[in-house]
Amino acid sequence: MSIKNIDYFWIIFIVVLSGLIIFGQPSLLINGLLLGFIYSLGAIGLTLVFGILRFGNFSQGDLMTLGGYISLSIVTVIFAGIGFTGSALGPFTFGLPIILAIPLTMILTSIIVVALDQLIYKRLRTRQASTMLISIASLGVAIMIRGLVQFLWGNEPEYFPRESKQFYMLPLDIRIPPDNIILGLMAVLMTLGVYLFLKYNKYGKFMRATANNPNLSLSTGINTSIVIIWTWIISGSLAAAGGTMLAVSQAQILPMTGWKILLPIFASVILGGIGKPIGALVGAIIIGISMEASTAWLNPTYKPAVAFTIMIAMLLVKPNGLFGEKD
Amino acid sequence: MALLDVQNIIAGYGETEILHSVSIQVNEGNLVAIIGPNGSGKSTLLKVIVGLLEAKNGNIKFMSDNITNSSPQKIVEFGISYVPQADNVFTNMTIRENLEIPSLVLKFNFKKRLEEILDLFPILDTKMNSKAGTLSGGQRQTLAFAKALISKPSLMILDEPSAGLSPIMADSTFETIESINKSGVTILIVEQNAKKILSIADRGYVLATGENKIDDTGLNLLTNPDVGMLYLGGSN
Question: Which of A216, B31, B169, B203 is 20 to 30 A from A270, alpha carbon to alpha carbon?
Fold first, then answer.
């Protein structure tokens, strides 16, 4: 990646951010940053699946929704059923049950996505279906998951148990909900974990090799079936964690929660460069901050439009994204 | 007994049959070349041997094992390394990572083998942490050879290693191939530069339209007028 190629983008982005800090509402930056970290969990999973399996997974948003609802049921049905309710921790609105529910949800969602791959996507790959067809199949999976969520949990908003807590007040009238700090930290740690896995773990290296050159991976003896399973495990885990964090930060969850953020997640992936995990992280942070910052001037309804404007601008200026390589 | 014995292979893509009963044999320690015009099925044959393409008929034996239609993973485990014609290194990974991948697949001591490989290809030593995509064409070919050799294969299969290289780099590549073979590694190679490869090959096979046409020692093929007329542009 040439630094020169992204200079213009960074310059514009930093100028807009500076303007926000000076004239706008700096609190929006903080909220946007958390939103970006949460988006990045969905976006990294999306970009990994694209890198290895070469299709856009339209079910990623609904997998996040499913993860949120699974966490909700673990907390409100299973944990509450055994008497493990736990009061809120320190300055946060939630307690230990939600923190413990996240890894359990990650495991369950991983199992679900691996099963979906074996039942649907693997069969399509075996029949050498086009990537377009597999993408459309993932759209079907998205609708199926949403239907399942509506069937199991209904259409009304569901709420995680929470306690009201004071915001942190900082200079420049910056108000930070304490939840944002812990949720943001968790998202950063998970992203760091994925980075370390890809960099140092045997299967992480196999994933990078397969994303780089699938045919050479095969002829080098890499078991690409296992690589695909690992890809789904990571993607599903991150979607589950991201969905739960989103629901906790928004204080509610709806069957459409994930679907609504699918478009910003796709925008993040394209902005960062398709197939590039680091690009997905940076793209998600930019999209998150931009979307939140836009509400200083625009009706929040237009937030997705902001994400797409940035994405289209990037496609026009640098079609391969911030971290993408030239074809 | 031949190290690799390929008998009556029929294969192709979809309904299109490319190979119509092709047979070749590779003896241990030999350098065996497959030559022929474009579209004769040379690369297709290599893909069938290494498990990237299914044989519709025929039999492939490696040592005493039947490896017909084995998966590429199994082929690597049998001790066969394959270097494709193009895109034969992981360009987004470092040279060290490229060399490490086979050790992670076959679970051998990477550090020990790395030292031995860097003695053979010292040019790679100074660039271990560079991305393979930053290397020149000749350097990439060297890395591809090193990556294939690091697992100490019993058979190395090369698909047109001189393709796209400058004449000087191509000569250097042939020298490298000859020295690898002289070190005891059996090599099966498909090559467009027939004159060059036949001059160093123990044996050569001429394929055309997916069929065996002529096979003989490399030097005999070089002086065979039929080969000259048909495949070397009319002169030796």
Answer: A216
The residue in chain A having the minimum alpha-carbon distance to the alpha carbon of residue B106 is A221
Contact pairs from chain A to chain B, CB under 8 Å: 58
Q: How confident is the model at residue B236 (pLDDT cuts 50, 70, 90)?
A: very low
Q: Is the pLDDT of residue B191 over 80?
A: yes
CB contact under 8 Å between A208 and B92, yes or no, is yes
**A10, HSE (Cβ side, Cα atoms, 13 Å):** 9
**In sequence order, which residues have a C-beta less than 8 Å from that of residue A15 and are 6 or more positions away?**
none
* 8 A C-beta contact, residue A218 and residue A227: no
Residue whose C-alpha is closest to residue B108's, from B11, B117, A187: B117
- Asked if B227 contacts B221 with a C-beta cutoff of 8 angstroms, the reply is yes
Report d(CA B36, CA B46) in Å as an integer: 14
Q: Which residues pair with B188 in a beta bridge?
A: B32, B157
Q: What number is the average pLDDT over the span B139-154?
A: 96
Task: Please tell me the predicted confidence (pLDDT) of residue A4.
Answer: 52
Please tell me which of the candidates A211, A220, A325 has its beta carbon nearest to residue B105.
Answer: A220
Residues 190-229 in A contacting B (C-alpha not used; CB under 8 Å): 202, 205-206, 208-209, 211-213, 215-216, 218-223
- Would the pLDDT of A327 be above 70? no
Token reading at A162: 């929470």
Mean of all residue pLDDT scores within chain B: 93
What is the pairing mode between strands B31-35 and B55-62? Answer: unpaired
Domain boundaries, chain B: 28-52+71-231
**ipTM of the prediction:** 0.92
Q: 């630094």: which residue's tokens?
A: A3
Residue A82 has a CB neighbour count (10 Å cut-off) of 8
Which of A131, A121, A118, A113 is closest to A243 using CA atoms? A113
**How many Cβ atoms are within 10 Å of A134's Cβ, its own excluded?**
18
Q: What is the mean pLDDT of residues B33-52?
A: 94
**What are the CA-CA distances from residue A138 to residues A124, A135, A143, A260, A277 (Å)?**
11, 5, 9, 16, 20
CA distance readout (Å), A195 to B33, B91, B155 = 44, 19, 36
Task: Return the higher-pLDDT residue of B174 and A321.
Answer: B174
8-state DSSP, B88: -
Q: Contact at 8 Å (CB) between B182 and B175?
A: no
Residue B61 burial (10 A CB sphere; 0-12, 13-18, 19+): middle
Q: All domains of chain A, ordered by start, with CATH?
A: 3-317 (1.10.3470)
Fold for domain B28-52+71-231?
Rossmann fold (3.40.50)
Confidence (pLDDT) at A24: 64
CA distances from A215 to A218, A219, B63, B70, B88 (A): 5, 6, 26, 16, 9
Q: Which range has the top average pLDDT, A23-32, A169-178, A283-292?
A: A283-292
**Mutate which of B71, B73, B89, B157 to test chain A, going by most A C-beta atoms within 10 A?**
B73
Measured torsion, CA atoms of residues A57, A60, A66, A70, in degrees rounded to the nearest 10 = 110
